[in-house]
């Protein structure tokens, strides 16, 4: 697999082009019988483990992430045309680790780089939501097929600073024509 792109060197036009060119395996079309447990786990911090040991090869993690699917019951599986293996996901399978913003207000566009190197442009098909918990807000970005990325704390602070500068009520931010409340009100 080729290395992930450097978000800071790309314009949002470049990001949109890369997203349009990206082809993922059609995991939603594959329905083999469940074959067992992958003995893999994705920790809350985005680290992938196999049999209790971290997977150190980034290319392997990126490859596995392309065959990850969320089942209707909320569980996660790694799926190919011939096998389906369960995988434990502690929170969200991805982590949004970098943000790129262009424009202001309703004309703003946001793009995120995930810990797997994938790029996601927030908007109507990739909404941002905030879940309030006892330990504070947990922001998420929809990636694909029910899979989400937990927005890292530093990226969430960056989003909040942009939102506070614009002064929207409720506190939130626009991206690609959609408004996302960041105070947990949506």
Describe this structure as you would to a colleague:
- The protein is α+β, with helices and mostly antiparallel strands and 186 residues long.
- The chain has 2 domains: 29-89, duf1285 like fold (Roll), CATH 3.10.540.10; 94-181, duf1285 protein (duf1285 protein fold).
- The chain has 3 helices and 14 strands.
- It has helices spanning 12-21, 58-66, 153-166, and strands at 34-42, 48-50, 53-54, 68-70, 76-79, 84-89, 94-102, 109-114, 119-121, 128-133, 136-144, 147-151, 172-175, 178-181.
- The strands form 3 sheets. A 6-stranded mixed sheet has the order 3-2-1-6-5-4. A 6-stranded mixed sheet has the order 9-8-7-12-11-10. A two-stranded antiparallel sheet has the order 13-14.
- A hairpin with a 2-residue loop joins strand 11 and strand 12 (147-151).
- The protein is globular and about 50 Å long.
- It starts with 11 loop residues before the first helix and ends in a 5-residue tail after the last strand.
Query: What radius of gyration results from the CA coordinates?
Result: 17 Å
Which overall shape is indicated by the principal axes computed on the Cα atoms? globular
Binned strand content: 35-45%
Main sheet attributes: strand count, strand direction, barrel closure: 6 strands, mixed
The structure class reads alpha+beta
Helix-strand blueprint:
Layout: H1 12-21, E1 34-42, E2 48-50, E3 53-54, H2 58-66, E4 68-70, E5 76-79, E6 84-89, E7 94-102, E8 109-114, E9 119-121, E10 128-133, E11 136-144, E12 147-151, H3 153-166, E13 172-175, E14 178-181
Parallel strand pairs: 1-6, 7-12
Antiparallel strand pairs: 1-2, 2-3, 4-5, 5-6, 7-8, 8-9, 10-11, 11-12, 13-14
């Amino acid at each position: 697999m080729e290395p992930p792109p450097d978000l800071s060197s790309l314009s949002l036009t470049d990001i949109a082009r890369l997203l349009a060119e990206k082809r993922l395996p059609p995991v939603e079309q594959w329905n083999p019988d469940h074959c067992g447990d992958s003995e893999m786990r994705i920790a809350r911090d985005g680290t992938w483990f196999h049999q209790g040991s971290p997977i150190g090869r980034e290319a392997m993690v990126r490859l596995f992430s392309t065959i990850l699917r969320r089942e209707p019951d909320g569980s996660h599986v790694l799926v190919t045309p011939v096998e389906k293996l369960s995988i434990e996901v502690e929170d969200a399978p991805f982590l949004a680790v970098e943000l790129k913003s262009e424009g202001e207000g309703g004309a703003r566009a946001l793009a995120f780089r995930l810990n797997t190197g994938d790029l996601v442009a927030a908007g109507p098909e990739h909404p941002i939501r905030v879940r309030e918990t006892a330990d504070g807000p947990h922001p998420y970005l929809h990636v694909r097929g029910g899979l989400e990325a937990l927005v890292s704390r530093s990226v969430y602070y960056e989003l909040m600073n942009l939102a506070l500068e614009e002064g929207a009520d409720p506190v939130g931010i626009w991206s690609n024509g959609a408004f996302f409340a960041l105070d947990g009100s949506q």
